[in-house]
Specification:
2 copies of one chain form a homodimer. By secondary structure, chain A is of the alpha/beta class. The first copy, chain A, has 12 helices and 12 strands. The structure holds a DNA duplex.
DNA sequence: TTGAAAGCGCTAACAT
DNA sequence: ATGTTAGCGCTTTCAA
């Protein structure tokens, strides 16, 4: 890392026979500078291709920007969360910058370069993490700034977070399906590198077992990314099984929308032949045909409160670590049939 | 802005009876430090709540991070663009940080705080801008770093960009509808604070006029944000007009998906009663029922090439300003009827 | 393994 | 209107 030959403010000052202070004034448009000198300096700046470097950052040493790490922007779940963070941050005068972490992991690299290159007041971690990664991240963050986890969290560690009870949410949704008389449930999950996926799967299995059903492992798929195509193709697969599912429980509305399409493709009616439940209650879930039954997550609040927690930590590092759970709610729309009382039998 | 009492590396050094160099070593885990001193220092760091400030940024003065400004993360159009940028950036070792500009403008503020608080190697501007805003932004960016516009651009200014021919894209789509025998076209646009909206509307009007149709101004709506709900409600409005449109031309697939729902709500068949065309060819447009006819924009390439341009500028500021146009393509799916040869009459 | 001290490039207070 | 200069907080030689 040899010293590059990029011109500094001193070079500009020397070449235009003024002081660095004057150049600084011109760059920042602060005090008055005589038009003549200004032009002269501007010309030099232009000529040598001067670009301000990091020296100026030193004067105001407190960072007023918050970093939000998010796995995939593609997942519409994230957007309201980010809006929540941003609105909270705005109140306190913080800027919000986003880092999409997907690519980074792809390359087996990590957050280090970003964290070292910029100075953040704090970070909201909206990406999903394994315990090992979390360990690494908190290490990298050490002596840097506070962190708050949003939506993803790891129980064993004493770290502030705002999240939902993933297991419980799916437990309830599964029970709902069972009470509709649907017990051949295909479960479209994310893979277990996501903590939420493990918890949701646990909720599914527990609900099934609590009602006396055995788990049919091959009715469970675990996908590496959240997108429509994957939901579609895997729903297609499940619907093609010898014992066709009569319900598809999806851990994302995105998967559920793919599943909807798969049913159409197969000529199956929703909800008559196949019930579908999504997760997240994204805006789109009201736009589908039929509209989606889904588990509402308070995404905006998830983000908003995470940032509130973070700002609290920033202002008072001694604040004790809070862990907040927000409520989910099953929103019943048209992709699931009506609940039945006791009748679990088939009807022709 | 009074000097805050936050501890610096010097405080830590003094309190642990070592030099700042040693503390620095420990923080960065570089050279070897005796375990004993390390623990001693670590304890002090913990006790005083030390957090590294911006001083360290000075040593490596070249920024290796690129800023991407995007209006609304909500619009799925942006995601592949960002992926394109990120993949290009990755090749050259740049990190990519995102700034959602929506809130900022809402508050009548601007980019200044972010631009001043961090140092970027360059910025890709994916947000839409008015000429006035652009002027302000380029001023703010002055002496800071190069900028490349992506997708949005302003003809009058000599600034590098990668974009599509908005006018032409809609011109072709309009002609397609006309050739399908649909001339009562409702046009669902963004409002004119977006440059692309002006251009697309011009394309629509020109096509209509070139075919001898008069423009029906109240069949045009101009929306302030790109989301499903707005598309839905405005399509509902258009479909409720006395002279009901037989086609809805939308400048975003998002609007088109809302329009699809509106047709369903009204009991109108797509494409038999109403043809629908979207814009962007987002992944979701294949998942709808019926699948969407849409104008494909090479979003990934838009992003990728923008970043290539930017890196070129970063490495060689004297590069001449390039302006690149990428091709769009009308993708015909099931939301539009078959083209007819000459028959413009109704059939009962 | 550790310390002393010279920068890094800029801003801002103060002086002229 | 402009110049002088003392920092800003850290990293990094170079010496010990």
């Amino acid at each position: 890392m040899q010293k590059k030959n990029k011109p500094t403010i001193e070079d500009v000052a020397r070449l235009s026979n003024v002081s660095t202070a004057t150049v600084s004034r011109i760059i920042n448009g602060k005090d008055k500078v005589k038009e003549g000198t200004k032009q002269k300096v501007l010309k030099v700046i232009e000529d040598v291709g001067f670009e301000i470097r990091k020296g100026n950052l030193l004067s105001d040493n407190d960072s007023k920007t918050i970093l939000v790490c998010v796995t995939e922007l593609k997942n519409p779940f994230n957007v309201p969360v980010i809006d929540g963070i941003q609105n909270s941050a705005l109140k306190y005068g913080y800027d919000v910058l986003l880092l999409q972490t997907k690519q980074i992991y792809t390359e087996f690299s990590d957050y280090e370069s970003v964290l070292k290159a910029q100075r953040f007041a704090g970070v909201v971690f909206l990406s999903s993490v394994t315990s090992a990664q979390l360990k690494k991240i908190t290490d990298q963050l050490n002596y840097r700034c506070p962190i708050v986890f949003c939506s993803e969290y790891i129980e064993e560690m004493n770290i502030p977070y705002v999240a939902i009870d993933d297991k419980d949410a799916i437990y309830k949704a599964t029970n709902y399906l069972l009470s509709c008389g649907r017990s051949k449930i295909g479960f479209i999950n994310s893979n277990h590198s996501h903590n939420y996926a493990k918890k949701r799967e646990a909720g599914f299995k527990e609900a099934m077992q609590d009602s006396g059903y055995t788990i049919n492992e091959h009715m469970i798929v675990r996908l590496s990314s959240v997108n429509y195509g994957l939901g579609y193709s895997n729903a297609l697969y499940l619907l093609g099984l010898e014992e066709r599912p009569d319900a598809l429980l999806c851990i994302s509305d995105v998967f559920a929308i793919g599943a909807l399409k798969a049913c159409k493709k197969k000529g199956l009616r929703v909800p008559e032949d196949v019930a579908i439940i999504g997760f997240d209650n994204i805006e789109l879930s009201t736009m589908t045909d039929p509209s989606l039954t889904t588990i509402d997550q308070p995404n905006y609040q998830l983000g908003y409160q995470s940032c509130e927690l973070l700002v609290e930590k920033i202002n008072n590092p001694d604040t004790l670590t809070k862990q907040i759970f927000l409520e989910t709610e099953l929103i019943v729309r048209d992709s699931t049939p009506l609940m039945i009382s006791k009748n679990k039998g088939e009807q022709s």
